[in-house]
């Protein structure tokens, strides 16, 4: 509720001053002379005498309600129309064994990527998103959806042991394109994240890139992890216990390929060697790919002063009638 004329409440100051003036004995009281008051002292006040102050009380209350009515209380009913032109985003995420290399926080490349992507998803409100995972082959974990809890649950369960090992960048890109090509969104984006070179798959990256360009799909490519010699954790079981050992591995990102895919599709290539730089990458993509939202707000006000005016009128009328009839004061 709002008040159209809040200045009207200042009239309460004058009302209080007037009431205080009356209470302090303004005006003379009528009197009658009697030879003795003994008879009157033995009598208590009657019902009419006890109720007589109600006349003045109703008048003061009527003035108070009249001031509230003058302030014009209103109830605002606001209607908001949102015209959202969302963006469709498909993640293509590498889940090959090399993503287990422990050179990124909180645990390895895979967990770091999942953590950053999760925060990216949670920051969105009106964009459809989906998830493709790939190694030597590609698999759609979640199609384009606005059901973020389902997408996040699918992301949380991503592991490196679900697909045949290898790095099929072309197959992953083609799979993501097939999931987003029929979208009518204002902008269609693929975010391809990998830590290796393309060494498998039935579709080569160049062919997949041409398909993406043909459909006007923008591809952001991200190379994660440090290039060079690394230690790949290997888990084995012995007497019911899981034992972790390490084997040497050389990790290398094909930056030239990822750069070409990004440039020719209208996207951008990023290199993220640690978790902090990966967070900055997704912040930059979040800044570049913003949904267009038009908001129109309409407010309708319902007047509420009538009931206060009615109360003021009724109380004043009651005090007027009573003051001239049953509760009339004798001169």
How does this structure look, described?
Strands 5-4-3-6-7-10 form a six-stranded mixed β-sheet, sandwiched between helices. It has a three-stranded antiparallel β-sheet with strand order 1-2-11. The chain is 39% helix and 27% strand. The protein has helices at 11-23, 38-41, 47-51, 53-70, 109-122, 148-156, 169-180, 205-214, 255-265, 275-288, 305-324, and strands at 2-3, 73-85, 87-94, 128-134, 138-145, 187-194, 218-224, 228-238, 241-251, 269-272, 292-303. Helix 8 links the parallel strand 6 and strand 7. Helix 1 (11-23) runs antiparallel to helix 4 (53-70), helix 5 (109-122) packs antiparallel against helix 6 (148-156) and helix 5 (109-122) runs parallel beside helix 10 (275-288). It folds into two domains: 53-73 and 304-331; 82-294, 3-Layer(aba) Sandwich (Rossmann fold). It is elongated, with a radius of gyration of 40 Å. The model has no long low-confidence stretch (mean pLDDT 84). It starts with a strand and ends in a 7-residue tail after the last helix. It has eleven helices and eleven strands. By secondary structure, it is of the alpha/beta class.
The count of helical stretches stands at 11
Largest sheet: 6 strands, mixed
Task: Calculate the terminal CA-CA distance, rounded to whole Å.
Answer: 47 Å
| Amount of beta strand | 25-35%
CATH homolog superfamily of the largest domain: von Willebrand factor, type A domain
Q: What is the total number of structural domains?
A: 2
Structural class of the helices, strands and pairings?
alpha/beta
Uncertain regions spanning at least 5 consecutive residues: none
Rg, Å, rounded:
40 Å
Overall pLDDT level: 84
Q: Assign an overall shape.
A: elongated
Which series of helices and strands comes N to C? Answer: EHHHHEEHEEHHEHEEEHEHEH
Secondary structure: number of strands: 11
Helix fraction bin: 25-40%
Q: Which architecture name of the largest domain does CATH use?
A: 3-Layer(aba) Sandwich
Looking across the biggest beta sheet, what order are the strands in?
5-4-3-6-7-10
Q: What is the CATH T-level topology of the largest domain?
A: Rossmann fold
The top-level CATH class of the largest domain is Alpha Beta
